[in-house]
Amino acid sequence: MQNLVDIPATLQATTELTQRTPAKQGNSSGIAVVDSAAQLEQLNGPKMAMLLGYREGSTKGGGTFIYQPEGAGLRIGEWLLQPGQTVTPHHFGALESGLDNDSGEALQRFFDFCAAPSARDYQIHGSGSFGTSLPLIAANMGYVYGFDMSIQGLAPMDDVLN
Prior knowledge:
15% of the residues lie in helices and 22% in strands. With 162 residues, the chain is α/β, with parallel strands linked by helices. The protein folds into two domains: 1-83, no CATH class; 84-162, no CATH class. The protein has a five-stranded mixed sheet. Strands 6-7 form a two-stranded parallel ribbon. A two-stranded parallel ribbon has the order 8-9. It is globular. It starts with 8 loop residues before the first helix and ends in a 9-residue tail after the last strand.
């Protein structure tokens, strides 16, 4: 079964996502608009949601999510990022700011996702400048086409793999 949802072109063309307030249950489109991953996890009712950004106030790490409690893919709670979209480290909570933020755990979740067979259903865009205090393991990345990522260590690390 394919995990695709058709969105009418008129809805896409007339929706200004950055200025729209979150959709209420029972709205005419049935599509909710949420500002953050935390809000998406709490959403009840709609079967489709537009996530503006992983963190409130951000436009990075968003996309179209469908309510599908089971199965593989990029998930936030019971919500699945619709296959075919681009996945970045921001979808896992990574913050681009080098030494200011530790994105180690988010980057490891991103690398783990990239190594999973379900990654082939998405476009992977691994770029940005991130900091980590954790050693990262990026193995079996056969589904990734390219990276332009800078990762800076924020703490001394004993083991480094090349």
